[in-house]
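Notebook, bench 3.
Goal today: get a predicted structure for FAR1 domain-containing protein from Trichoderma asperellum so we can plan the truncation constructs. The sequence was checked against the plasmid map this morning, with no discrepancies at the termini. Length recorded as 193 residues. Pasting the sequence as submitted so the record is complete.
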Amino acid sequence: MPLQPPPIDKLFITAEEAFQALQDHAREEGYALVRARATSYQNNLPRRYDISCVCGNGEYKPKAAGIRKSKTKRTGCPFKMKIVQRKDSGDRWKAGILCGEHNHASGLAVNFPEHRRAALTKEQRNNIEVLLENTSLTARAINEIMKKRHPTILLTEKDIWNIRQKALKKKRWIGAADLDTEVAEALKKAGVL
Ligand SMILES: [Zn+2]
């Protein structure tokens, strides 16, 4: 039966590991999770994260993330979990279920950007960048090549466009090192570099 909540008996050294285990489970069950809120700060470090289904409300957006809105598949899903750093477990992280129910059907992993991002290896990303840079192949053609090489890859044409955008940006920054010194100084003063 899909959409089952994950087991919560394990302890993890870091919050990232704990979250990843939940996300891996969610992927198998046909949903995806986001970290919604960090709280219980001690020494500037959170000891608790609230976790929501991506179909729920109130996704946590770091301030630096900009204002671009992603296409939403929110249904107001009530599924909620937490991961907490437990003093009684040697400061290790443990998950807990706050609401184990979803209000939507399960979906394929490829339909969740959260799962696609996590599944793409560094090598695959590099290969895509090389193809973008050195060929005039379309995103669709690159996607087909990647899928032939890696039949289980989770990749969409949109992901390839995003990789292209990021690669272009990177080049602009690397290119800035070639500017002549005076221009570079001026740009630095203006806060552009
Ligand atoms: Zn849900």
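The helical segments are 15-29, 113-119, 122-134, 139-149, 157-176, 181-189. Strands lie at 11-12, 33-42, 45-53, 80-86, 92-99.
Flagging this for group meeting.
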